[in-house]
Design the sequence.
């Protein structure tokens, strides 16, 4: 039962009704905690103990840190709690890869351990909480139920957003009465999230899976188009998930930070990461980049580049144990550094050429998108070697030949380029156009909430009918792409 | 100290000193990006002749915290 399953909506409806039937305070807290553990257990079964372990360590570590005044002893407590929090992540996610890399064979009992859903997300939330207490930015939570809910809260536990203790914990009084306005705002976000996931992401996933599953057979142009489709597939999938999570939390009276802010309109790679998977990139900024940058602050440009590259590389490895994620992060580190240090010169070139600011913005967003999509190939390929097939073909003469054939067919009536893996190709571009139009409207301040109610109702009806149709015509709902992290 | 802190922020971020309040933070000040953050730290260290620890630097998420850290380091007029 993922957040886009009809079963989840049923589950959430029951939690929502019970929540507002109960008096505010502990009763609601216990309900949300029970719902969260039940929700997680249906994903993870026996691995739920890992979630409870992380919550317990965060609680005990936080309280112990708060009570320890002596500086040396405080650091020992902090490091011990940090190691305990990170131990499951290393065991379940990285140990196999690390041992493989140095030629050690793990016993089957360890090698066959499954990765608990959401482990990287709730571990990072707990680690951030502990660091904030260590820095005295946050007081340790004394109520174990509230802290347990912070780590296990069901809308966020499987794939974030990675929340901060300072933002979420103060909202756990759970005393507010039902607000129709707020509930409707939350429902609207859930609706948009479902449209993004069920209508757009799951549809684009089909040609993407075909090409990435058999890159040797795909034409160069098919690889290029699949690369572009995957960028939108991932965006619609993860932004859709995030909106459903944020919307559900909002309906329960809890505000969660946004995770995406029209990333494909970003003019530079650093700006892109301020708008893409924001809860992770801000986590990395605050807890990795800033300490490194602070340590190397007198090293000038070298310090800045080193902190940027190391932070992005770790951000890449956060996604998974494998060289493809290492290179994914490293590439963004290099691109972000290059962007920071060339932006002045690029500004000067545009100014000298007299390019209008609007055109500059479009050119920059396009270049940023293409760079992101190229690096994202590393994120999607099944094997690192497959990425080479993509890059080799996308920058080949075969690609130009494919393009010439496709353009000739479009404008001069020649024989169309046969792209069997792409399926109903034109329809996919319409979905992408819809995503871009939605982002442009949102950036201009035009949201669904601001258009006339009659149009909103028509949009909800059409959207829900389409979602219901796709739910009924698909026996198994594809899981969210970020569930594997 | 308030005026000196505001001046340092104003010079490094390129905004007027009047715009610098206790609530000024990277979240509401686009100029306070990751590159400017460390320029701010270096400028604060030079201005107040203090050395900030890594923990102090990463805790400085708004102007009020910067002033609190400086006060704890013995800088007068909090």
Sequence:
């Amino acid at each position: 039962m993922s957040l886009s399953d009809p079963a989840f909506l049923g589950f959430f409806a029951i939690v929502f009704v019970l929540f507002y039937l109960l008096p505010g305070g502990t009763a609601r807290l216990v309900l949300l905690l029970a719902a969260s553990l039940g929700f997680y257990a249906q994903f993870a079964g026996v691995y739920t103990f890992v979630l409870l372990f992380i919550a317990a360590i965060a609680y005990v570590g936080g309280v112990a840190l708060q009570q320890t005044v002596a500086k040396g002893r405080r650091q020992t407590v902090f490091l011990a709690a940090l190691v305990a929090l990170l131990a499951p992540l290393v065991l379940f996610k990285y140990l196999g890869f690390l041992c493989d890399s140095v030629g050690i064979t793990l016993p089957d009992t360890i090698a066959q351990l499954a990765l608990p859903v959401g482990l990287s997300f709730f571990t990072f939330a707990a680690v951030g909480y502990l660091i904030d207490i260590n820095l005295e930015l946050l007081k340790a939570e004394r109520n174990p139920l509230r802290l347990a809910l912070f780590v296990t809260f069901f809308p966020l536990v499987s794939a974030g957003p990675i929340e901060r203790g300072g933002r979420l914990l103060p909202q756990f009084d759970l005393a507010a009465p039902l607000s129709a306005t707020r509930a409707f705002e939350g429902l609207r976000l859930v609706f948009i999230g479902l449209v993004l996931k069920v209508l757009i992401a799951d549809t684009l996933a089909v040609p993407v899976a075909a090409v990435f599953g058999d890159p040797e057979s795909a034409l160069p142009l098919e690889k290029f188009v699949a690369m572009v489709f995957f960028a939108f597939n991932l965006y619609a999938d993860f932004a859709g998930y995030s909106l459903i999570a944020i919307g559900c939390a909002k309906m329960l009276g809890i505000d969660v930070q946004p995770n995406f802010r029209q990333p494909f309109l970003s003019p530079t790679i650093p700006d892109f990461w301020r708008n893409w998977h924001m809860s992770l990139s801000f986590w990395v900024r605050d807890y990795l980049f800033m300490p490194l940058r602070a340590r190397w602050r007198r090293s000038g440009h070298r310090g800045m580049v080193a902190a940027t590259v190391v932070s992005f590389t770790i951000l890449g490895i956060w996604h998974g144990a494998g060289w493809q994620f290492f290179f994914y992060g490293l590439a963004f580190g290099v691109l972000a550094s290059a962007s920071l240090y060339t932006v002045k010169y690029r500004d000067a070139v545009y100014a000298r050429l007299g390019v209008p600011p609007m055109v500059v913005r479009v050119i920059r967003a396009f270049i940023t998108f293409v760079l992101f999509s190229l690096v994202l190939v590393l994120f999607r390929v099944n094997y690192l070697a497959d990425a080479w097939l993509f890059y080799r073909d996308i920058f080949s003469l075969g690609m130009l030949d494919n393009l010439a054939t496709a353009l000739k067919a479009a404008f001069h009536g020649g024989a169309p380029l046969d792209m069997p893996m792409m399926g109903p190709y034109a329809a996919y571009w319409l979905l992408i156009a819809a995503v871009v139009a939605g982002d442009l409207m949102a950036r201009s301040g035009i949201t669904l909430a601001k258009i006339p109610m009659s149009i909103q109702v028509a949009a909800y009806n059409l959207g829900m009918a389409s979602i219901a149709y796709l739910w009924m015509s698909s026996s198994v709902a594809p899981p969210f792409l970020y569930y594997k992290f | 100290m308030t005026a000196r802190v505001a001046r340092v922020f104003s010079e490094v971020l390129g905004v007027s000193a009047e715009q610098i309040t206790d609530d000024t933070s990277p979240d509401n000040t686009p100029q306070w990006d990751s590159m400017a953050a460390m320029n701010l730290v270096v400028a604060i260290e030079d201005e107040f002749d203090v050395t900030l620890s890594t923990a102090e630097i990463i805790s400085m998420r708004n102007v009020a915290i910067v002033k609190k850290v400086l006060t704890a380091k013995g800088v007068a007029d909090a």
Notes: The mean pLDDT of chain A is 89. Chain A has two domains: 12-176, 183-484. The CA atoms of residues 117 and 158 of chain A lie 6 Å apart.
